[in-house]
Amino acid sequence: MKLNLIVLFIIFSLPLYAQESKEAAPESKTSVKQSQEIMNPTTMAWQLQLEEYAIFDTEGEDGFAQNFRFRGIIPVEKGLLIPLPQLIRVIAFVNTAPDGTTGLGDLTLNQFFIISKKKWGQFGAGWNLTAPTNTSHKLGSPQWSIGPAFTVTFTNLGNWQMYWILENFFSISKNDTYGNNNYAVLQPNIFYTWANGIYAGIEPEWQIDYNTGKVAIPIDFRVGYIWSGKLKYNAYIEPEIMAYRSDGYARNLSNFGIRFGFRWYIPMN
């Protein structure tokens, strides 16, 4: 719990530090266009993303839970096998269950290819692979999963920005023991950006189980701040509640939590 409080304090302090740095450094600047480029999931840039999801209410369980996510993004201008610009994401977790069990979560690899660029935005497609690296089944899945992923980004909307991400996960191991686990995650992202680098919007992850048709539909609201100096930065806070969950759906049991995030961006050029 002390570690969580330290992480939250650091993340909360970042926007204040950023504002001081911005005032002290004349070269620091921001704009609507720059902010939208930073938020765009198909932007070609090296990235390090840290996010703490503090879960205060878990369905059917007592106790504080959390998911700390580390996500590194590697841009590739032209792949060797597929000659398209692409983004490779490596995602790892340190999780805590409501009963206090703490350890590693699952590891996910994601590769997105930028297939088409238009005046209105971009279209991409790729794949996900989830490895059961968790130290306890309370902290992740016991099965390997793989599936296709797609993204559509709309950027020619003035101060608004909208993009959709669809990810699919199909279990490919231990199906005889745990059954076939096949589900999708649909992420609608809608943001409004101001010229001073502040933005607000939604970025929930809606889930549907292909086998049962059951769903989990959380609703969130993110407020963030983007600034730049030598590098580019993005800090945000995002409360989330579970708006609707089908009876018996167990993949997402969070009823209320708050995300605190911080991201570094290093442009390729």
Uncertain stretches of 5 or more adjacent residues: 5-29
User: Could you describe the largest sheet, including whether it forms a barrel?
Assistant: 15 strands, antiparallel
End-to-end separation: 41 Å
Helix/strand structural class: mainly beta
- Secondary structure: number of strands: 15
User: Helix segment count?
Assistant: 3
> Would you tell me the overall average pLDDT?
89
**Whole-number radius of gyration?**
19 Å
Which sequence of SSEs, written as H and E, runs from N to C?
HHEEEEEEEEHEEEEEEE
Approximate strand percentage: over 45%
Give the helix level as a range of percent. 10-25%
Shape: globular
What would your notes on this structure say?
By secondary structure, the protein is mainly β. Helix content is 13%, strand content 55%. It is built from 3 helices and 15 strands. A hairpin with a 5-residue loop joins strand 3 and strand 4. The longest helix is centred in the N-terminal third of the chain and has 23 residues.
For this entry, give a set of tags.
globular; 13% helix; mainly beta; 15-stranded antiparallel β-sheet; 269 residues
